[in-house]
TrEMBL record:
Residues 83-93 have a biased composition (Basic and acidic residues). Residues 83-116 are annotated as: Disordered. Residues 94-103 have a biased composition (Polar residues). This is Uncharacterized protein.
Length: 116
């Protein structure tokens, strides 16, 4: 129930300055509710911004961990490939030859691929 129209009709009926000077204006509850709702929304937005920041930091950490894990896996794959290639080379060499055979008469290329 809205009491403001009733008070206005009474004041308009008497038109007395004494009554108007002692009158206390009642607050508009609709406006107050809107302001409170707006403050709640602003507070909720601040909380959501903080949560968004926390989640973005966690996402960056997970991405960094995923990158490190991928590097480790690729390193392990490379090591496995190198070791399997070495084993294949060792298996292809005849067992009768020694590893300390004399060097051949061919000139070996120098470092950098330059020859004299």
């Amino acid at each position: 129930m809205n009491i403001n129209p009733i008070i206005r009709t009474i004041l308009n009926h008497f038109r007395a300055c004494t009554i108007r000077s002692y009158l206390v204006v009642l607050p508009d509850h609709g406006r107050i509710e809107k302001q409170l709702k707006l403050e709640e929304l602003i507070t909720e937005r601040g909380v959501l911004d903080m949560r968004s920041l926390e989640l973005s930091l966690q996402q960056k950490r997970v991405e960094a961990n995923l990158t490190d894990l991928t590097r480790c896996i690729r390193g392990m794959e490379f090591d496995l490939k190198v070791n399997s290639d070495l084993e294949k080379k060792e298996n292809k060499q005849p067992r009768g030859t020694s590893h300390n055979s004399p060097p051949s008469d061919k000139k070996s290329p120098k470092v950098g691929g330059f020859s004299e």
